[in-house]
Amino acid sequence: MINRIAFLGCGSMGEAILAGLLGSGLKPSSVVATVRRVERAEELASRYGITALAGAEEPEANPLAVQGADVVILAVKPAGIAQLCREVAPALAAGTVLVSVAAGVSLAQLAAALPQDQPVIRSIPNTPLKVRRGVVALSTGSGTTPEQLSLAHEVFVSSGLVLDVPEEQQDAVSAISGSGPAYVFYLAEALAAAAQEFGLDEDTARMLARETVAGAGLMLTEPGADPAVLRRAVSSPGGTTEQAIATFEAQGLPAIVAAGTKAAAARAAAITEDLAGR
Question: Residues 5-24: pLDDT tens digits?
Answer without folding.
Answer: 999 999 988 998 999 899 88
